[in-house]
Amino acid sequence: MSIRAIFDTHPKPIGGDRDALIRCIDECATCAADCTACADADLAEPDVQEMVRCIRLCVDCADLCVTTGRVAARQTERDDAVLRATVEACRLACRACAEECERHAHHHEHCRICAGTCRSCEQACEALLATLS
Amino acid sequence: MSIRAIFDTHPKPIGGDRDALIRCIDECATCAADCTACADADLAEPDVQEMVRCIRLCVDCADLCVTTGRVAARQTERDDAVLRATVEACRLACRACAEECERHAHHHEHCRICAGTCRSCEQACEALLATLS
Amino acid sequence: MSIRAIFDTHPKPIGGDRDALIRCIDECATCAADCTACADADLAEPDVQEMVRCIRLCVDCADLCVTTGRVAARQTERDDAVLRATVEACRLACRACAEECERHAHHHEHCRICAGTCRSCEQACEALLATLS
Amino acid sequence: MSIRAIFDTHPKPIGGDRDALIRCIDECATCAADCTACADADLAEPDVQEMVRCIRLCVDCADLCVTTGRVAARQTERDDAVLRATVEACRLACRACAEECERHAHHHEHCRICAGTCRSCEQACEALLATLS
């Protein structure tokens, strides 16, 4: 992961728990891509009518993951209140999306995969929040 | 505002306070553009060294405004916990950005304008949060 | 429009045709919101199965409008090759989305409104491209 | 990479060269994160005055990478004209950002790393474009 290498060469010391930050940035990037692809696969399913809630939560989750990954990647003049609230919104979006994808996991393999990615990202958000007191 | 016209023709009833939602979506769009332009103007200032915190908070605010405007514009299968946390993160980003821009308002006119936009968006977020119990 | 006021106070002269730039930034903001709301309304339609292409083109168009509005709002150290290619991609996305929304305009009023917004944004992109030689 | 697993379970056949698509989506995610972190590191440098062009091209590149990764990840009702123009804009943004980061690579290690990521993403865009006739 090159983001770690960039953090290592940042001119100012990175505040807080660097591993938790990097894990969150990394999980957000993966989750944004998987949620975008899962919403797209849902759209192509013959039972798209049943997948509406899944599509909606996947696109919300993708948007929050992109923004959270960006806010977390910025370490200069960091505002911890903004970071915390952003990661918290992302955590909730990942959880909501995981719960819905899990409901479809037995009949749509892409939902099973996406649910796993969302749970990973939810945990990475939780772990980062625990380091931001 | 065509977003109001689209809401008026949405096949499902829009939950909650439609005016508060539309105001928030609209303010987020304006604030995202102003913060992007203000960060860019900061970069071109001879005292860019002094504007680093302003640039950083403007780009965070722009990102949160884009995502919040999108989450708020989606009314199908809305998840109020996700919406609330997203609007709350946006409110904090707008406030932090407004406070920093206000510090530079007397010598950079673009900061004065951007601070006003951020305060408007902060209030629109507050007003929307008050309708989401 | 406060983006015009920010441009007027930018420390460096804004290159090219300021009116074409501002119009494009403004249309992109409106089009991003309308396409997000139209895709969401499509998802709630009883004939969602028939709206899959419309949803897909609306979300592409929303993404391109957000990015194009940002790239166009940045005037410091502008790279015209990047700006031109970005506006061109946005123009094509607006056109594709307008064509599809027009197909549904007679039975879904939100598609009729969204098609109009996409055509406006397509024209604003064309007008900006004509000023970037 | 879970995006490959999701593509493998997509209900409709993925058009074109799947490896080129997945590589582009993956490089875009990495490049978006690295460019965001490099722009942030630039902001914290004592010579930020000299890094203005680098910051600007990094944020443009991050925005185009996010949007391109999303458009490429959507395979349902794909519009190849939109995909091609989007990937082309991303290729140009990666190239411009790489060229500028390379100018600073000898004195800012984060620019050296970011330049490498941008070149990889530029090549992934070129490779994808070669498969879209």
Protein architecture, described:
Four copies of one chain form a homotetramer. Chain A is an all-alpha fold. Chain A has one domain (2-8, 16-131): Substrate Binding Domain Of Dnak, Chain:A, Domain 2 (Up-down Bundle), CATH 1.20.1270.360. Chain A has helices spanning 2-8, 18-44, 52-73, 80-104, 109-131. The B-C interface holds B 2-3, 5-7, 9-12, 25-26, 29-30, 32-34, 36-38, 40-41, 43-46, 62, 66, 69-70, 73-77, 108-110, 113-114, 116-117 and C 2-3, 5-7, 9-12, 25-26, 29-30, 32-34, 36-38, 40-41, 43-46, 62, 66, 69-70, 73-77, 108-110, 113-114, 116-117.
Provide a quick synopsis of the model.
Chain A is an all-alpha fold and 133 residues long. Chain A has a single domain (2-8, 16-131), classed as Substrate Binding Domain Of Dnak, Chain:A, Domain 2 (Up-down Bundle). Chain A has helices spanning 2-8, 18-44, 52-73, 80-104, 109-131.
Largest inter-chain interface? A-D, 41 and 41 residues
Indicate the proportion of strand residues of chain A.
under 5%
Which shape of chain A, going by the Cα principal axes?
elongated
Distance between the termini of chain A: 27 Å
Fraction in helix of chain A? over 70%
Ranges of chain A where pLDDT stays below 50 over 5 or more residues in a row are none
**Name of the CATH architecture of chain A:** Up-down Bundle
Question: How many structural domains can be distinguished in the coordinates of chain A?
Answer: 1
CATH topology of chain A: the name is: Substrate Binding Domain Of Dnak, Chain:A, Domain 2
Number of strands of chain A: 0
Please report the first level of CATH classification, the CATH class of chain A. Answer: Mainly Alpha
Radius of gyration based on Cα positions of chain A: 16 Å
Give the number of helices of chain A.
5
How are helices and strands ordered from N to C of chain A? HHHHH
The structure class of chain A reads mainly alpha
Oligomer: homotetramer
Mean of residue pLDDT values of chain A: 96
Main sheet properties of chain A: none
